[in-house]
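User: I need a structural model of precorrin-2 dehydrogenase from Sphingomonas ginsenosidimutans for a docking pre-check later this week. Nothing fancy, just the predicted structure tokens so I can convert them on my end. Input:
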Amino acid sequence: MPWSPTGSRPRRSWRPSAFPSGCNGVSAPAPLNSLPLFVRLAGRAVILVGEGEAAAAKRRLLERAGARIVGEDEAAAVLAIVADDEAAVARLKARGVLVNAVDRPELCDFTLPAIVDRDPVLIAIGTGGVSAGLAAALRQRLEGLLPASLGQLARGLYAARGGLRARFPDGAARRRAIAAALAPGGALDPLDDHGDVEVLAALTGDDGAGAVRRIVLASRDPDDLTLRHARWLAGADRVTHRADVPRAILDRARADAAREATDAPPATAASGERVVDVAMMR
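Assistant: Understood. Predicted structure tokens for precorrin-2 dehydrogenase:
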């Protein structure tokens, strides 16, 4: 760049249009329609206005969360759910209360998601109020995928924190061990039912115990296998089965997995062995 007559470099002119999408031309993230929050309502006042089934359903949800349900005149409340009363929505908003207007997303300050509860794991599915049916359908799919023991796994991970710090003093190594255990097919894959698994032993590779998982088939069609059952078969070292289990089902196991037709399902597995026992529903 040439020098200016004064001996200093000329200033560049800043043109905002040179970077229309963000720094270095990288597109800026799209704004969130709303920010997901998990709010603890136990003992806190929440206004509920309205009658009928819609209001009753919201009452049940608030009671489940431990909220103290109050009327519109409660001054301490900062949240309100209103069913079929647009005038009440306007009055409450004028007071600075955040309002959920049932089935009126355009009037809502916040929406209530569909919930999958695996305490303490809580999954919320929201569509910004545009399709409660879609949120419900997604919840139903997730209910079928997530084992009932998922919350137990979460509590086990929490309890294992001290042992993990001792076993993996380096934070990066500790994160890698946890990530590997929770990965698909890992020792603590969250989509598998781990029951009473010893979390710390599984994370540190000190658990030599084998596992027997049982599948009871309602259909002879392999396409009707649940995702969880298909993954069990794919990861099995040995498959035991009744004589009437279709070959097409057994073919979903690894080619090198041992297969054993038996009327007496195994009670235990060898050290480190993953056994899947398959039977038809009677």
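Before docking, keep this in mind: Residues 132-145 form the longest helix (14 residues).
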